[in-house]
Amino acid sequence: LVFDYHSARCMAHVCLGLLKGCAAHFGQVIHIMHQNQTEDGSQVRFWLEAQ
To answer: What is the mean pLDDT of residues 18-46?
Structure first.
C-alpha cells in the first residue's frame, strides 16, 4: 500500500505511530517505509508491506 500524508502541521511522525499502533492492535506485522516529499515534512509518502 502506498499513500501520501499531507498536512500543514507536519506531523507525519504521529501518522507513523498510528500505523504501528493499529498493526500491533490487530496482530499484524508490517514493514513501513516513508520519505519526505517536501523539506518541511508537510508531505510524506508512506509504503506499507504486509509481512
So the answer is: 97
Tell me the pLDDT of the chain averaged across its residues: 97
Number of structural domains (the chain) is 1
Say if CB 31 and CB 16 are below 8 A apart. Answer: no
Which pTM does this prediction carry?
0.88
Identify the band that residue 2 occupies on the pLDDT scale cut at 50, 70 and 90.
Answer: very high
Other Cβ atoms within 10 Å of 40 Cβ, number: 8
Instruction: Tell me the residue range of the domain where 39 lies.
Output: 2-50
CB distance 44 to 2 below 8 Å: no
Q: Measure CA 47 to chain center.
A: 7
| Backbone φ, ψ for residue 5 (5° rounding) | -100, 130
